[in-house]
Amino acid sequence: MLLRRMSSTFEGPRKKMIEATLTSALAPTHLEVVNESHGRVEDESHFFACVVSDKFAAKKLLERHRMVSGALTQDDGNLPFHSLRITAKTPDEWAKSHAAPAAPKCAGGDGRK
């Protein structure tokens, strides 16, 4: 499945924080952050991050995902939102295919307390 863009133009504070943090931590050549929250887009509870970075070279997929989630993890060990779906590729991998796995159905929870 190819990357899809949200039709909404909503740019919430969590999305902006994710973009700024990943840009600073991973110096991506391509970065796409999509708010995939169900319900109101303003909820900002579910995100997809497609990160293409030279920093992923020679790293296994699990290590790449840890780099992305680690950059966003708070001091208490949690993400500041409910769900993060990650596609992490090197520039060479991205040049070969822009495909990203489809999002699984959410098992529950919307990040609200």
Short description:
With 113 residues, the chain is an alpha+beta fold. It contains 3 helices and 3 strands.
Question: Please, could you describe this protein's structure?
Answer:
By secondary structure, the protein is an alpha+beta fold. It has helices spanning 13-26, 61-72, 91-96; strands at 30-35, 46-52, 83-89. Strands 1-2-3 form a 3-stranded mixed beta sheet. Helix 1 packs across helix 2 (61-72). It is globular. The chain starts with 12 loop residues before the first helix and ends in a 17-residue tail after the last helix.
Q: State the order of secondary-structure elements, H for helix, E for strand.
A: HEEHEH
- Overall residue-averaged pLDDT value: 85
Strands of the widest sheet, in order across it, are 1-2-3
Query: Which structural class fits the helix and strand makeup?
Result: alpha+beta
Instruction: Report the radius of gyration as a whole number of Å.
Output: 14 Å
Count of separate DSSP helical elements: 3
Low-confidence stretches: 1-7
Q: Tell me the strand percentage band.
A: 15-25%
Main pleated-sheet profile: 3 strands, mixed
Give the helix level as a range of percent.
Answer: 25-40%
Terminal Cα span: 33 Å
**What is the molecular shape?**
globular
Number of strands: 3
